[in-house]
UniProtKB/TrEMBL annotation:
The species this protein was found in: Leptospira interrogans serovar Grippotyphosa str. LT2186
Gene3D superfamilies hit by this protein: endopeptidase domain like (from Nostoc punctiforme)
InterPro entries: Papain-like_cys_pep_sf (IPR038765), Peptidase_C92 (IPR024453)
Pfam families: Peptidase_C92 (PF05708)
Domain of life: Bacteria
Protein name as annotated: Orthopoxovirus protein, PF05708 domain protein
Amino acid sequence: MEAVEPVKITEIDTFISKGKNKHFVIKRLANSDMLLTEEKIRLMKSIGNQYIGKHYDIYFNWSDEKIYCTELAWKIFK
């Protein structure tokens, strides 16, 4: 999922192809086994799905009407 215009699910190959020289980095969340329970993952997916189709917020306002990339990540992981 990425907050582009509009927020959408993007296939990993498509996401990678957008990077400069197709460069990307994968990082692991410390203590993910304790933090990301099956219930928490279901909740995060549900929250994320609520934003699919929302427009990208070029003004970086904190609202649910439009959303920008960091805001999307924060709202899903909070």
